[in-house]
Amino acid sequence: MFRENDVHIIVVGCGRVGSSLSIALSQKGHDVVVIDIDEGAFKRLGTTFNGITLRGLGYDEDLLLKAGIEKCEAFAAVTNSDSSNTMSAEIASRLYHVPKVVARLYLPEREQTMQFLGIDYVNGVRMTVQPIMDKLLEGVGQHLFIRGELEVIEFLAGPEIHNKKIIDVQIPNEFRICLVTREGSTFLPWRETTLKDRDILLAAVKSTSFPKIAKYIRK
User: Fold this and answer.
1) How far apart are CA 201 and CA 186, in angstroms?
2) Which of 28, 10, 149 is nearest to 77 (CA)?
3) Sequence-ordered list of residues with C-beta below 8 angstroms from that of 178, at least 6 positions apart, any chain
């Protein structure tokens, strides 16, 4: 069963990357649920893994509910299928609003699709788990678009931003909030808009300015 104050993470895919990622996250003290269509794949987790394993598809909503998707704080889709990873990640992000969602991507030509859907992803056929770990646990949100020094990101606002006005948070030429999603409704803010804890914010930020805004992002 889940422990009350731990971070709930779902990992879809228990291959080389998925099993290593799940073990590493579990060792850090997080509650980890691993989903794979092949029950034999769970043998890769070894005998010391203390998370939960569920057999099935990562885009099966009934299975995701059983895995605790409604209180999930990070979701990684790392199967060997780009289509499966995309569907699983899109459901986690759009339907259940999981704050941090990362998908593994094999084919570079599918990058445009991932960007269009607003899904954060990691490229590579042969890769270590570190890039995914960084995005799940240390990243500042979903990096949707990069051009030069500017990035468009989506992130879950933290308590430091609560009741602050946009004019007091934005940094001229460095950080600008473009959209706010609150309780399922999305709107265009203006400089006097008051922000709330757990707002989902879409913003443009200069890459060198991330340290300045990190305090506003829910970890």
Assistant:
1) 9
2) 10
3) 152, 188, 202, 203, 204
What count of Cα atoms within 13 Å lies in the side-chain half-sphere of residue 187?
11
CB-based burial of residue 182 (10 Å sphere; 0-12 exposed, 13-18 middle, 19+ buried)?
A: middle
Domains, the chain, with CATH or none: 8-139 (3.40.50.720), 150-216 (3.30.70.1450)
Residues 64-109: pLDDT tens digits? 999 999 999 899 999 999 899 999 999 998 899 888 899 988 887 7
Question: What is the model's pTM?
Answer: 0.62
Question: How many Å apart are CA 11 and CA 103, to the nearest integer?
Answer: 10
SS (H, E, C) 132-193: HHHHHHHCCCEEEEEECCEEEEEEEECHHHCCCEHHHHCECCCEEEEEEEECCEEECCCCCC
- The token pair at 215 is 């305090």
Name the phi and psi angles at 137, rounded to 5.
Answer: -110, -25
Q: Which two three-digit tokens encode residue 194?
A: 């008051």
Is pLDDT at 125 greater than 70 in this prediction? Answer: no
